[in-house]
Every structure is written in C-alpha cells, then in structure tokens.
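We emphasize that the prediction below concerns an isolated chain of 435 residues; any contacts that depend on oligomerization or on bound cofactors are therefore not represented. The input was used exactly as deposited, without trimming of termini.
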Amino acid sequence: MTPIPFHRKRPEIRFSATKTMKVLHTSDWHLGHMLGELSRAPEHARFLGWLLDRLASEAVDALLIAGDVFDGSNPTPATQAMYYGFLAECRRRLPNLDVVVVGGNHDSPGRLDAPADLLKAMRVRVVGGLPSLTAETLADRVLVPLHRADGEIGAWVLAVPFLRPSDIPAGSSAEPLKLAEAVQQIYCRLSELAAACRLPGQALIGTGHCYMVGGEISELSERKIQRGNQDALPVSIFPPEMAYVALGHLHKAQMVGGCKHIRYSGAPLPLSLNERRYQHQVGLVEFEGDRFVRYQPLPVPRFADLLAVPETHAPLEEVLEQLKTLPTSAPEATPEAIPPFLEVRVQVEKFQPNLKTVIQEAVQNCWVQLVRIDTLTLRPNQPLAETVPRQNLRDMNPVEVFRKRFHSKYPDAEMPAALQDAFHELLETVQQAER
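Result of the prediction step, given as a token string:
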C-alpha cells in the first residue's frame, strides 16, 4: 500500500460526514498462553478462525489489536506462526482490510516491530513501542489511516502502544511530570500531528494499553503495570476530539468512566479461572463520518470450558463423589470439542502426600484436562469461615509478594512510600530488560 504523505497544512477537501465505517476492536490475545502446564493453542487457533469469519460476515473495514498479542516477550516459533498465519489469511481473504497492531506490556516491542515494514505492504501497521522520532517521521509511523469500503480514508488512528518509562516525557528536573500529565502530553502531541493530515468527516481513534481509573482487573492473570496500578490513568488524558478509544490490558470487557466511546474489548479467552464467568467478546465499532455511533459486542464462543470442582473447597470424600459426575467423552454433537480445564478444590486438615495421585486416578477416564489441585487447610475444630485459602506463588504478582515479605518482617509497620517507589522502579527496569 502506498504510504500516506505527511501534510503540514490541511488540504481543503471535504468528504461526506454521512459515510459509515466499521472497525473491530480486540486485544489481549496472549498467544502462547499456558494454563498450568497446558497449552491454549487449540483454543487460540479456533478463535482466530472465528475472528476471520466475523471480519468477513460483518463487512469490517479495519481491525484494531490493542496489545498483548503474545503472552510473553519470547514466543515460540509455533506461536509466531499462528500470528503471522492469521495476518496472511486476512490479506488473502480480505485484501481491503486495514489492520493496526500495537504492543502491550507482555509483548516485546522489538519483536513486534521487526517485520513492520514488510507487514505494511500487506495493509498491516504495527507499532510495538513508541519511537522517538521527529514530528514528520513520528506521524508517518504512529498515525495510521483507515479506509472505508469505497477506498477513501474514513478515520485516523493514534497507534499508541504500552508506554514504558523511557517513553514518558521527563519534564523539568525541578518539577517532574506526573504520569497522567506525561501521557496526556503524548496524546495531545499526536492529536496535533493528526490535525495536519485529518480531513473533515474523518474520525479520530485512539489506542492504549494501560490501566484506567475504575477499571475492573483480574488479579490472577493481568500483570501489574504503571507502578503497580497505583497511577491509574483518568479518561481526561484523551483529547475530546477522539471519537473512540480502543483499550487493552484489562481482560474484562468494560466501558471506562461511563464513556461509551472509551472501552476495553477484553480478552477473547478466559486466562485464569477467575475469568471463566466473563462475557468474552470483541467489539464492532461503527462510525458515521467523524462520529462514533454504536458499539456492538460480538460474543466469542467458549472453545474449552473452565471447571472448578467443587465450587467451594470440600473434604476429599465429597470431592471424589463429585468427580464421578464428570463426562467421560466429548458430546456426540461436537466430537471435535476441546476437553474442559479442571481445577479440583480440596479441604484438608493436614498434608496428604498422595493427594495428587488420588485426584489424578479419579479423573483419568474423564473428559477433562486437570490444571491444578487447590488445597485449603482446615485445622481441627476450626470454623470454615475463619480459613484463608493458601496462595500459590505463581498466582501472585511481584508487588504482592514484596508487600507480604515486608509485613512478615515488620508486621506492625507501614511500608515507606520511598521503598515502594524504589521497588516499582526496580520492577519496571527488570520487566523492560526482559524485552
């Protein structure tokens, strides 16, 4: 596709504000994700096939992927093949579809950006990290035109990825910028650049991979970002001329601040047991000229269920009885279905060394995939209401581990703010080095 030239002055051309455009918003695919030691690749493959069908059936003009394409910074060759295979199939089946991909906190900016120039020829624009460029080259890199079915530009996207500390303006040494102010400066600067090339009747769309004030998080699967979510961003960071903001990071689909045009699309698959009751979806966003007019959720099918047996911890004898009710084969109507993931919840009074073997034998002929056995230790004569489930270290984020360690050593003390800041700075440095 021929690159759109950067214009210092707005051309005196007007398009009809009544022309419609459809954009599909998705995020947080987490390709390569493992649930325990079990791969989610079969589910992801089916989701991508389903997504291709929806893009075609809904006559979508553009696809926005708002970060966390991969689950980690070093995805396997098979995981990368799934991603690039999807983009190639988009090009084959939907040659006029514009695709915009921005990096998330799980993604490696360099890995996403490496094939950006090659993908650009396939109408796929990738911004893994925010580049430090001149105004003109930044505009060509981060401002992305989206085309309607008639071939005209219907919208411009400010393709802002997850912002790392190096991306944030420093401000003066005497008065450093607060995070929200710094991020607002980035969006305002890009909006000014967009004004130089955006014509009347063309919508302005923002992206972001961040934690917003009031956002509902899933503690078990969303890595803490931006100083452990202490600096959640307000909706005021987005300029008022933005018709829609496509967000990523939070796995539950939701509006932000009561604004219908600022949304998280949520993850398409449940990434932890805590997310099994989420209404997983992608969002079909419609525009008329430069106006946002509608958000329609497209529910994503559940390709493999997540089960907790029992719902609350129970003695082993009761658990074994409930496990007998699990199916032993796939439903006849869907023989190619993926077996459900299973967490078994057992209440014990002391350590039982053979517990894992007993549970494995109980489910070995069942049509399930055993993910984990979660135990709740109940001392003799202790009421169940007074028990606290044991936390697995893998389910805890680094900030929580650090806080618990501090309070174990200083149980009556408040953690000093300077110590918290130092730890967050160290954590951000380590996470950035991983990429």
